Amino acid sequence: MQLYMLALNPTDSVTEGFLPAARRLGLDITVLTDQPDTHRERYRAIHPAPELLGCDVRDPHAVISAISAHRPPGAVFSNSDHLQTPAALAADYFGLPGKDWRAALRTKDKALTRRHLDTSEGVRSVELAADADPGRLAALDLPYPCVVKPREGVASEDVIQVRDAAELVARCREIRARRPGAALVAEEYLPGELHTLETLGDGERLHVLGGFRTTLSPLPYFIEERMAYVPAHPAGLVTEILDRLATLGVGFGACHTEFVVHEGRARIIEVNYRAIGDQCDLLLADLLGLPLFELILRTHLGEPLPADLGARTDGAARLDYPLARRAGTLTAAPGATDLTVDGVRLTYRPTRAVGERHDLHHTNRDFLGILRSVGRDQATVDRVAEGFLAERSWEITA
């Protein structure tokens, strides 16, 4: 069966997760991408490498045309935030299983998300259209501090807390300088503990895979520094989040939802209608003992999920993301490492090569590496992970 996978830049989720899963399922794989040379370089060590077709994957018309001129599709899939709507529209065009394109658009567009959840969430939010002057925001009755973000952004890119109207306008102008014509959203800052909920559905049955408790960098930025696995959030909070996902139309394939808990109330930050990234999905598959990537692909092949996934429930885990704290050249850093300490499996992978120079982005592009730690109890996992990080150093020279 022919699988078309839509992608922008290469990611660990695709390279280490979905491509091997598709091969295990016996699928013929074609990657549609606007960056074929970058993918070709990333897949040099993969045998057999997937077929690559250049395509403007953000454009549903271009995707449909490319597929129709090639082999008949059996499934159309993407794990990219930006490509859920094109993938859903293409799947629908060819009569294949997939996400409702309305739900995909509703979750990708943060202004649409807020408007759709208005009665249940009560988050004050305004949209600054792509052609609107940021100065108009100064006259609006927004609560401060508030948060400004691109309407269709990802990975905390240009997500900033601001303290007053003057700073809001200034930050919007800075973002516009980096992203000409970008539509922006300014919304009430939601205090509280940041959590995620990971779900997998087939359109009829929805499984909760647990979630993570997220530790962020100091404000005004929102960079993930640590993710600790939470097997089960309080039932009432989970019900609240699932009700809001149902309101958005979410229920097919993987979904990664971020929410805060404050004074016993849960409120959604954003809904990413795809599997969690930054190697959290690789950790989940290992921790739960599930063929997670195969299960996700099977939903797009039209197969129902079992009533019981058979996930393990006796594990503990966390991920750590050593960050660059300043711009400069990485002059020393640990290499890739796999080891077991006191029963905790440690997997460290660099995300930046020694000798590379980078600016400071205040996003996950500042990650220097990713440490995955999986064991049986959280106290031991925490001790071993913190020991690993303390014994290693990352040096940046201006």
Describe this structure in words.
The chain is α+β, with helices and mostly antiparallel strands and about 400 residues long. It folds into four domains: about 1-95, Rossmann fold; about 125-190, 2-Layer Sandwich (Dna Ligase, domain 1), CATH 3.30.1490.20; about 190-305, D-amino Acid Aminotransferase, Chain A, domain 1, CATH 3.30.470; about 315-398. About 30% of the residues lie in helices and about 30% in strands. It is built from twelve helices and 20 strands. The strands form four sheets. It has a nine-stranded antiparallel β-sheet with strand order 13-12-9-10-11-14-19-17-16, with helices on both faces. Strands 3-2-1-4 form a four-stranded parallel β-sheet, sandwiched between helices. Helix 3 packs across helix 4 and helix 4 runs antiparallel to helix 5. It is globular, with a radius of gyration of 21 Å. It starts with a strand and ends with a strand. The model has no long low-confidence stretch (mean pLDDT about 95).
Blueprint of the fold:
Layout: E1 2-7, H1 12-24, E2 28-33, H2 36-42, E3 51-54, H3 60-68, E4 75-78, H4 84-93, H5 101-108, H6 110-116, H7 118-121, E5 125-128, E6 146-150, E7 160-162, H8 165-178, E8 184-188, E9 193-202, E10 206-216, E11 224-230, H9 235-248, E12 252-262, E13 265-272, H10 280-288, H11 292-300, E14 316-320, E15 328-332, E16 337-341, E17 344-350, E18 357-358, E19 369-375, H12 378-390, E20 395-397
Parallel strand pairs: 1-2, 1-4, 2-3
Antiparallel strand pairs: 5-8, 6-7, 6-8, 9-10, 9-12, 10-11, 11-14, 12-13, 14-19, 15-18, 15-20, 16-17, 17-19
Helix pairs in contact: 3-4, 4-5, 5-6
